[in-house]
Amino acid sequence: MDSQDRVTQKLADFAKLWLAHDGLWFQVVEEKYGLDAAIELDKAAWFQFSPIEAKRIMTRLGIEEGGGLQALVKALPERLYAELNEQEIIEAGEKRVVFVMKSCRVQEARRRRKLAPFPCKEVGIVEYSRFASTIDPRIRTKCLRCPPDDYKGEFWCAWEFTEE
Fold it and tell me: Which domains does the chain have, with CATH numbers?
């Protein structure tokens, strides 16, 4: 295994560890305070984390704030989730971008355990809105589909980004 392969493997492992910690944190909060409280606290955490992640990606890629949808298209594949989930930008125009999560490590694990999908829509709205608006405050985010919405087999969630 060459040096680049080790770096790639290490990054994937770090992403898995990050997600495992996030999931365990959520489960502990849910067990102690209930699902609604866990979702509210998760939203609060993503409200703070998403801009941090966006700013670090922007710095790494040399993206200036206000870069519009083109900057968002460059930044989305750089998120930690990209190391874990199959995601795709299925539309990238001047005024509209549609991003889908084709496979989701969290949802797939729940399906294997015969559990209902995790209802991540509320959290996702905070997460994606804050990420996109950090890149450019003119970007608006709309959830097209996300659990608890029905899974139709093609993708777990879909997000539309438009620029005002």
Answer: 3-163 (3.30.1380.20)
Identify whether the C-beta of residue 87 lies closer than 8 Å to the C-beta of residue 107: no
At residue 31, the pLDDT reads: 94
Distant-in-sequence, close-in-space partners of 11: CB < 8 Å, separation ≥ 6: 83
Structure tokens at 161: 């980004």
Look at phi and psi of residue 149 and say left if phi exceeds 0, alpha if psi is from -120 to 50, else beta.
beta
For residue 71, give every residue at least 6 positions away whose Cβ sits within 8 Å of its Cβ, in sequence order, or none.
58, 63, 64, 135, 136
Q: Which of 53, 47, 54, 27 is nearest to 38 (CA)?
A: 27
Position 163, amino acid: E
Q: d(Cα 87, Cα 42) in Å, to the nearest integer?
A: 22
What b/e string do you get for 3-40 counting C-beta neighbours within 10 Å, with b at 16 or more? Answer: eeeeeeeeeeeebeeebeebeeebeebbeeeeeeebbe
One-letter amino acid of 102: K
pLDDT in tens, 59-110: 999 999 999 999 999 999 999 989 899 999 999 999 999 999 999 999 998 8
Residue 141 pairs with which residues in a beta bridge?
161
